Amino acid sequence: MMNDTSRTGTPVQAGDNVPPGRIRISRFLYAVLALLFAACIVVQVLFAGMGIFKDAADWELHRAFVLYFDKIPLVLFVLSFVGGIRGSLRWWGIGLFAMSSLQYVTALAFADVWMVAVWHPVNALLMFAVALYLTRRSRGWLSGIGR
């Protein structure tokens, strides 16, 4: 009985070395984390807005919250190998990590260079777009469809 496909695209049987459950679980986690990353970006923007429009003390929420989700793209990249995920869904994990690293550069290293710092919110929008793309492409794995 075919339960899944391996990284090479060949059918994985219940008795094969690669457990089909590992692939399904990895893909499910990938989809959940892609969605979580997109949601975290929304919360991050909310915290930035609170720091700007409500109370400057709330800016610390924006600065601290990123530490809870900035490594998710690396986990997506690792899960892409474990789950046999190929193509753009694999490589956008590294792309998002690079974009996340760029956020630190634009906010910290070049905060006084406005021509660089102004790209911080633009990069956040691009990260959100990529996270939505990954979420849309992997949403079938949340229900077990599109194994």
TrEMBL record:
Domain of life: Bacteria
Transmembrane segments: 28-53, 65-84, 91-111, 117-135
Keywords of the record: Membrane, Transmembrane, Transmembrane helix
Protein name per UniProt: Uncharacterized protein
